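Before surveying the methods themselves, let us examine one representative protein, written as a sequence plus integers encoding its fold.
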Amino acid sequence: MSGVDGLLLLDKPPGVTSHDVVDEVRRALGMRKVGHAGTLDPMATGLLLVGVGRATRLLRFLVGLHKTYEGTGRLGEETDTLDAEGEVVRTAPVGSARSDLERAMTALVGESMQRPPAYSAVRVGGRKLYEAARKGQELEAAPRRVSVEAFDLLAFDGRDFEFRVTCSSGTYVRVLVADVGHALGCGAHLVRLARTAIGPFRLEDAVPPDAPGLPLPVQAAVAHLPRVDLEPEKARVASHGSVLDPAGIEGPYAVFAPTGTLVGVYRDHGGQARPEVILPS
């Protein structure tokens, strides 16, 4: 199936990495030019956006989209990885009411500075944190600004709580769960996590990685961006990566030829529209 271009919405199974999924798609489609827009931990399941062919050049415009997850947190147990794959390092009795849990979750809504966990792929001084942590060495990454749009309690049995969270790209949900446990004084860790949405894309539209089928058209990767339709001559100029008149749009926007073909992505800068990505025809 060489020469295929487009965007795949895949349902990642548990126990595999996002890179494993990319490799599976390469084998299924017989292509090398495949990439993903944002990783999921091996334990996590759910929506993974994968670009094929020319669409790989557009993945950067998907990485920053807000994500929605559904998962399970367990109160009364802390682990070294903050999730169920780690070793339990502390236990405590749980005496919190549902209202206490809801308050602790609501307190995390909004913008805050979050420090990546020790067991993560963030690099410090060229080393991945999890590699140092496995050797008993302590490395600490600088906190980063994250945004939690919503953090809702779906169910609570006195120990495990089901939740739905919508947050900015780069937010560690297991850190949010651990923060809830810290606020309640009993500790907590993440037991289950499934990504159900990335921007406008939904898990219910996803397919298995081993049977990806035909991808969505290339323009699906920029459907969330503002659209500018060009006249024939301007489309020809844009196809060569030339500057255009500004569109008066903040941030990146997709430019299309009169035929409906995606030419590329532009951004206004210094009184001009400059190309960020031009797709070869």
